[in-house]
Each structure stands twice: as structure tokens, then as C-alpha cells.
Specification:
Blueprint (H helix, E strand, L loop, with lengths): L3 H16 L3 E5 L8 H6 L4 E3 L4 H13 L3 E7 H6 L2 H10 L4 E6 L17 H5 L5 E4 L4 H12 L4 E5 L11 E2 L2 E2 L4 E4 L4 E6 L3 H7 L5 E6 L1 E3 L3 H8 L6 E9 L4 H7 L6 E7 L10 H7 L4 H12 L3
Parallel strand pairs: 1-2, 1-3, 3-4, 4-6, 5-6, 10-11, 10-13, 13-14
Antiparallel strand pairs: 5-12, 7-8, 9-11
Length: 305
């Protein structure tokens, strides 16, 4: 499934360029060659900035100020972490919108080392207001989220991954389901499975008395669905399973359930750096994000029943 979301992103973006006259696609070398045909048709709206990520974001801000709708693409560490000051100033501070589309996720490109890993991207963007943060678990979800973002003027971060669920849990009756979707019901805990980790969570929770909520969008956080899910619990307990920095959304749970005594466990990518390159699968196991590791953590938190 490697690269399927990114391939869909390119395909859909090219379609959108041909139908949305104010849309522009900005790249930083990554995937740029796949837009060559679109660049020939729209040379003023398909722009490659090379490895100048700060300029990439600043140019997006300028285009947005001029009434354009920029879609900006690179690997996550180069799209969010490196030019974060420009995101803060040239997008948020200027009160303009853009669609940032990343690839590589937390460790999809583990063979390239730490420079290409970005488990902290969602936590970092969450320090800024007004961002919609989409974490699709399937290419169909990514397409629907991209099309919706292209038609808006909001700040949107679309986090693509090589990992994918077998089914698009976030598509219901052919339409994108915003908010958390219930995949399994139980009473011992609520497990929020984010994006491409849903299938691993479903395997890990087989036979456990837990509710599983699926989230393909994590900002805004669906507080209403979480409140409804914990209503049946005598002692609310929430487990977050996020494909990025562990605990990223724990503050959102605390805010949602602030008037209730509750327990929360944040699972995700650990803060300790793994210095062996390894494969993405090996990284997932090391961080406890494979189904066996998740089950151990869940049983330790909620018990066997």
C-alpha cells in the first residue's frame, strides 16, 4: 500500500487544477515531477520551490493574500517543523488559508533517518488556532478531505501515510463522515483509533469490552461524540491511539471530560529517539503500535474483560 495516498493526492490535485481556477499547487521537489503535465497546462499555478521550505510557506501566504487557494506539499518535517515560523506568521497571523499536504508521516521513510521523521507535527500545529487536521486512514478518505479543503478558505493540514486500513472507515454511504465514528461498542473504556491505526486497534480490541471510535479528523476534536461514548461508563476511561507523538490529544480529552473523574492513556510514537534505521514495521513494533503491543497496553489499562 506504500504511496497509495500520495498517488491519489497527485491524481485529485491535477483534476482540481483543471476545474478550480484559483487553485495553485506548490511543491518542494517532492512529487514535483508527477505534476509536469499539469505544469505545462498551468505554468503560473504549479510551482516548485526546491528545498526552500520557508519560502514555500511564505509564497503560499502571498498567494492566499492575492485570493488564490494554495495546496502545499512536502515531507512532514519539511512542511511543518522546518518552516513553522512562516506557518505561524504568513498563514495564521495574516489570517489566510492554505492546504498543507504532508507525506512520510512519523516514520514511513525510516530508511532516511531522523531528518525524514516527524512524529511531532500534529502536536506542533495544535499550538496554533483555527487548523483543521485530517489524518486519513485510507486513500478514499484522503481524497474526500482534499476535495473538501480545496473548496474552502480554511487552514487545513492533511497528513498522508503509507500505512492504510483495509476499508475507509471515515466514508459512510459514499460521503465523508466528519467527527468520530463508532466501530465497536463496550463499557470498560473508549478507545479512539486515529487514521491508519484503526485496523490494528480493531485487532487489538477483539474480545475486549471497549468502545472503539474512529477519527480521520483530530482537530477540531469531536468532544460531543466522546461525551456520548463515555456516558454509559460508570468510571470513564479513554485510550488514545495516535500515529504520531504519544499523548498529543490528551489535553483535548482532559478539556472534554474536565467535569468528570476519568482516566486517560495516550498511546503513540514515543519521545525516545530510535537510532537504528529499521523498517516502518519495526518502528511500529518498537513504539508498541502493532496490534500485539496495543493489546498489551489496553489490557494493562482496562483488564481482560
Amino acid at each position: 500500500m506504500a504511496g497509495i495516498m500520495r498517488e491519489r493526492f497527485v491524481e485529485v490535485s491535477i483534476q482540481l487544477l483543471d476545474t478550480h481556477e484559483r487553485l495553485a499547487v506548490l511543491t518542494a521537489d517532492l512529487t514535483s515531477a508527477l505534476f509536469d503535465g499539469a505544469r505545462e497546462r498551468h505554468p503560473d499555478r504549479v510551482l516548485n520551490f526546491g528545498i526552500r521550505e520557508q519560502l514555500l510557506i511564505s509564497a503560499a501566504g502571498g498567494l492566499a493574500l492575492a485570493g488564490m487557494r494554495p495546496i502545499v506539499h512536502s515531507f512532514a518535517p519539511f512542511l511543518v517543523e522546518r518552516p513553522f515560523e512562516q506557518i505561524k506568521l504568513d498563514l495564521n497571523h495574516q489570517a489566510v488559508g492554505a492546504v498543507l499536504v504532508s507525506a512520510g508521516a512519523s516514520y514511513d521513510i525510516s530508511s532516511s533517518g531522523r531528518t525524514h521523521q516527524s512524529p511531532g507535527d500534529v502536536a506542533l500545529l495544535s499550538t496554533l488556532p483555527d487548523w483543521t487536521i485530517d489524518v486519513p486512514g485510507h486513500a478514499d478518505e484522503a481524497e474526500a478531505q482534499l476535495r473538501e479543503a480545496a473548496d474552502s478558505d480554511e487552514l487545513v493540514y492533511l497528513r498522508l501515510s503509507n500505512q492504510s486500513n483495509a476499508h475507509a472507515h471515515g466514508i459512510v454511504d459514499g460521503r465523508l463522515h466528519r467527527g468520530f465514528r463508532t466501530l465497536r461498542q463496550g463499557t470498560a473504556a473508549v478507545v479512539i483509533a486515529v487514521g491508519p491505526l484503526a485496523d490494528a486497534v480493531l485487532t487489538a480490541t477483539e474480545g475486549l469490552d471497549v468502545t472503539v471510535l474512529y477519527a480521520a479528523t483530530v482537530r477540531p476534536f469531536d468532544s460531543v461524540a466522546l461525551r456520548a461514548a463515555v456516558a454509559a461508563q460508570r468510571e470513564p476511561a479513554v485510550v488514545l491511539v495516535e500515529p504520531y507523538l504519544a499523548g498529543t490529544s490528551v489535553p483535548m480529552v482532559a478539556e472534554t471530560l474536565g467535569d468528570l473523574s476519568h482516566r486517560v492513556l495516550g498511546l503513540g510514537v514515543g519521545r525516545e529517539e530510535l537510532r537504528n534505521y529499521g523498517s516502518p514495521r519495526q518502528h511500529a513494533i518498537a513504539h508498541g503500535l502493532d496490534s500485539a503491543g496495543l493489546r498489551r497496553a489496553l489490557i494493562g489499562f482496562v483488564g481482560e474483560k
